[in-house]
Design goal:
The complex is a heterodimer of chains A (about 375) and B (about 220).
Chain A: E1 9-17, H1 23-31, E2 38-41, E3 50-54, H2 67-75, E4 90-93, H3 99-108, H4 119-130, E5 136-139, H5 145-158, E6 164-171, H6 175-183, E7 205-206, E8 208-215, E9 221-230, H7 243-256, E10 261-264, H8 271-284, E11 290-291, H9 294-297, H10 304-318, E12 320-321, E13 341-342, E14 348-355, E15 359-367
Parallel strand pairs in A: 3-7, 4-5, 4-6, 10-11, 10-14
Antiparallel strand pairs in A: 1-8, 1-9, 2-3, 6-8, 9-15, 12-13, 14-15
Helix pairs in contact in A: 1-10, 7-8
Chain B: E1 6-17, H1 21-27, H2 42-54, E2 62-65, H3 71-79, H4 86-90, H5 96-102, E3 112-116, H6 121-131, E4 136-143, E5 159-168, E6 174-179, H7 192-200, E7 205-209, E8 214-220
Parallel strand pairs in B: 2-3, 2-4
Antiparallel strand pairs in B: 1-5, 1-6, 4-5, 6-8, 7-8
The chains are: A alpha/beta (about 375), B alpha+beta (about 220).
């Protein structure tokens, strides 16, 4: 295995929007052990089974899309810059973009739903709405997309192609995506309990968006390394030998280089992936507590890498990081932390995402 | 690193014409023996054929560009409601075509970048190849013809795929280089499908890179 790439990327600004609110409100909700998920009909107004969803402002599709106002509020917090110009690229990352509108069009025949729809059109909509230039890269790699955007943005900065980079991410649940995960039977009536040793696993979905502004500046928290690996073992399952998780945990250990760190895992609530993840980290970094937040926020899909980074940074600012909300003992490995952590006990955190195709992505953030 | 020139080691172009996935299976029989393509999308079959010709290795980054992805699968998934199809859900995600191509052989890749754009997609794909630091890059792209999304311009009207295997400083079929100090003002976008055909016909290509503040040129030997 090759040595991890070492970088030093400053985090100038970062925030998010979840069902709880911004990063501060989301962190606070998690620290209090609150569950943002509620049982909702999987197909919205079309009904269907009740499944756990955490939405910000309603669930069914609207015109304009219900995410547009939420993104306006988020964008207002991004430091002013000539985004989308040669030295200030934007990386738009999402799994679903506006695909819910296509579903709504097919259900209703209302052509107003066709104004955005596809990923490419969504990016044009954002460019026009927020005055971004042509230097916008859109990535779509399911649930590792936000981490992929961070990795690519880091490369632009490392090579001096960019002075500042904006990674912008959003994924809002719709009957399209909830129906899809429900068809895979992993989104069901059961609330998720990430890393809990129980008979069956399940996930939940949540609304999420976020941004991070990266540069080469020295900042209190910075990215020291990024990790990418695609198992290509199975469409929706991981390699049962855990090759991706093991590679990730090995990378984290190498980058930590003896420093004490905590791990914000992917932890959707599925059993097999949860076990592979928890055991891999337990073996490589037995002293590092593993937490997951999707038992409260739901899985915010392609945006989770940036959303959970914003919450982690807020936790570091506050000095206390949420434990694994929604989970009870016994857990799948000894490293799973149910209770909150004191972040000053650690020098860094690994943030990790996992996706269809056995895709794994992570970043290592060190802090003072 | 980004200022280097790439050599085009291999190029592949496939014209999927107006076929739907079911019709296309016979077209790609040479690549998919027996029933191995029975669950593949049309774009998945075409991208798989490109990869079979170009090769894929764990350490060689793969960059994949598509404006619409697998439109036929997306439409069929939406039409499967209220009994949503799990198989079609899996192939409605943007990078599915590449995953269909690599999963059967369990070919892991460290770095895989699926990108999308309505404008300057081909240019964005090329410019990001320059930003990856490995000696070699596999660039793939394509579209899958849709049905009810085509008239409203939310799907491609034609199916095609292409692939390039690029090496820094090699001596292959042609070169990809940067032309700096020329303004990008007034740069006009050329359709993605047209640029893909230009590869097949070995035509010179010149597209703007807003990230590198340069024009990217493809010249053939």
């Amino acid at each position: 295995m090759t040595a991890p790439e070492r970088i030093r990327i400053g985090i100038e600004a970062c925030d998010c929007s979840t069902a709880f609110g911004d990063a501060r409100q989301s962190c606070e909700g998690l620290l209090q052990g609150e569950i943002a998920l509620k049982p909702m009909p999987v197909l919205g107004k079309e009904g269907g089974d009740l499944v756990p969803l955490a939405y910000s402002n309603g669930y069914d599709e609207t015109v304009p899309p219900r995410w547009s106002g939420l993104l306006d509020e988020l964008v207002s917090k991004i430091p002013s810059q000539k985004w989308g110009t040669a030295k200030c690229p934007v990386f738009v990352t999402s799994s679903n973009f506006d695909v819910g509108s296509l579903y709504a069009y097919r259900q209703t025949g209302d052509e107003r739903f066709l104004t955005i729809g596809t990923p490419a059109k969504s990016v044009e909509y954002l460019k026009n709405r927020y005055g971004w230039g042509e230097n916008v890269v859109a990535l779509s790699h399911a649930c590792v997309t936000a981490n992929l955007g961070i990795e690519l943005a880091s490369r632009y900065l490392q090579q001096g192609i960019a002075e500042k980079a904006l990674v912008f991410s959003y994924d809002y649940i719709s009957p399209f995506v909830a129906g899809g995960f429900h068809s895979l039977k992993i989104l069901n009536e059961q609330f998720p309990a990430p890393y809990q040793d129980r008979e069956t696993g399940s996930i939940a979905l949540g609304d999420g968006s976020g941004f991070v502004v990266l540069s080469k500046a020295e900042t209190p928290a910075r990215i020291e390394s990024n990790f990418l690996y695609n198992e290509m073992y199975h469409f929706t399952a991981n390699d049962p030998e855990g090759s991706g998780f093991k590679a990730l945990a090995h990378w984290a250990k190498e980058v930590a280089d003896g420093r004490k760190i905590w791990v914000k895992g992917h932890g959707t609530g599925t059993l097999e992936a949860g076990r592979l993840e928890a055991e891999s980290f337990c073996e490589a970094l037995p002293e590092s507590p593993l937490v997951g937040w999707k038992g409260s926020l739901g899985h915010t899909l392609g945006s989770c890498g940036v959303v959970e980074l914003a919450i982690a940074l807020e936790a570091i600012r506050q000095g206390e990081a949420p434990g694994t909300v929604g989970t009870l003992a016994p857990t799948l490995a000894n490293n799973v932390a149910i209770d909150n952590l004191q972040t000053s006990d650690f020098a860094g955190v690994v943030l990790f995402s996992n996706a269809f195709g056995g895709a794994h992505a992570g970043c290592f953030v060190s802090y003072e | 690193m980004s200022k280097q020139t790439f050599s085009i080691e291999s190029v592949v172009y496939l014209d999927g014409a107006q076929d739907k996935a079911a019709e296309a299976r016979s077209r790609y029989k040479e690549f998919y023996p027996g029933r191995s393509a029975r669950r593949m999308t049309h774009l998945g079959m075409m991208i798989g054929a490109c990869i079979q010709k170009l090769g894929a290795e764990k350490s060689v980054p793969v960059l994949y560009a598509s404006a619409f992805g697998e439109s036929e699968s997306l439409e069929r998934f939406i039409d499967s409601f209220p009994q949503a199809s799990p198989a079609l859900f899996q192939s409605s995600i943007h990078p599915s075509a590449v995953e269909q191509a690599l999963i059967p052989s369990k070919q892991a890749v460290d770095r895989f970048y699926p990108i999308t754009s309505e404008r300057f997609l081909f240019a964005k794909a090329l410019e990001n190849c320059f930003l990856l630091e490995e000696e070699e890059v596999v660039l793939l792209g394509g579209e899958e013809r849709g049905d009810w999304l085509v008239p409203v311009e939310l799907a491609s009207g034609e199916s095609f795929a292409f692939g390039l295997r690029l090496r820094r400083g090699g001596d292959g079929l042609g070169t990809i280089s940067l032309e700096s100090d020329v303004s990008l003002e007034g740069a006009v976008d050329t359709p993605f499908s047209e640029l893909a055909r230009a590869l097949e016909e070995r035509r010179q290509i010149r597209v703007p890179s807003f990230a590198l503040d340069a024009w990217i040129r493809i010249d053939w030997k």
